[in-house]
Design brief:
This protein has helices at 4-12, 16-34, 41-58, 68-83, 90-95, 105-112, 118-128, 132-143, 148-155, 159-180, 185-195. The protein has 197 residues and is an all-alpha fold. It has two domains: 4-95, Rna Polymerase Sigma Factor, Chain: A; 105-195, Winged helix-like DNA-binding domain superfamily/Winged helix DNA-binding domain (Arc Repressor Mutant, subunit A, Orthogonal Bundle). The radius of gyration is 18 Å and the shape is elongated.
């Protein structure tokens, strides 16, 4: 199986099977990411189609990438902001009307359970207390498995700022959980890794 770089270069060269592969491998994750910014499935689908249309138009003029999903997430986020016509910097948008409302796979799993243990109740409460930017960075880092360089590009952060944001998010989870019970933070991290896709 070719790696992302090879698939991307084939797509840029006009290989339709590479385009099809990129579309089917990334559509669902792009949709799940986009819907967390705006709960409007048709709007998000239109944005995804716009991303692919622009990629096809650009063809060989596109830059290289080693991680197609990262490239597609960044393109989708930019398209969502553009289509909403805000015309502001991302940090201003996130402080006004557009919010990242992630529901983690672990959070959804816990919410569906009828009888939660004290550990699970504590974790669910802690997750609900995260800020929008904390939720986005935790989502990208632990559920999508992205590295800090990729997160910095998508969220327009400096590397040290991204690391601090993750640290503060984890610390926030830890503080809430430990205030209710003596639950080590390693339990929280291991749960995120277990449920990462």
């Amino acid at each position: 199986m070719a790696n992302d770089h090879e698939i991307w270069e084939n797509f840029k060269a006009g290989d339709k099977s590479a385009l099809s592969y990129i579309y089917f491998q990334n559509f669902n994750s792009m949709f799940q990411y986009g819907i967390k910014f705006k709960d409007d499935p048709e709007f998000i689908k239109d944005c995804i189609q716009d991303v692919f249309f622009k990629l096809i138009q650009s063809g060989e003029r596109l830059g290289s990438t080693e991680n197609i999903r990262f490239y597609m997430f960044r393109a989708l986020k930019n398209t969502i902001y553009k289509e909403l016509g805000k015309g502001q910097k991302m940090e201003h948008l996130e402080n006004t009307s557009l919010k990242f409302e992630a529901s983690f796979s672990l959070e959804e799993e816990l919410a569906e359970k009828e009888n939660l243990t004290l550990k699970e109740k504590s974790l669910l409460e802690a997750l609900s207390g995260l800020s929008n930017r904390q939720r986005e960075i935790i989502y990208l880092r632990y559920e999508c498995g992205m590295g800090y360089d990729q997160i910095c590009t998508i969220m327009e952060l400096k590397n040290d700022s991204a690391r601090k944001l993750v640290f503060r998010a984890i610390k926030s989870l830890k503080d809430i959980i430990e205030s209710q019970m003596k639950l080590p933070i390693l339990f929280t991290i291991s749960l995120f890794k277990k449920h990462a896709f």
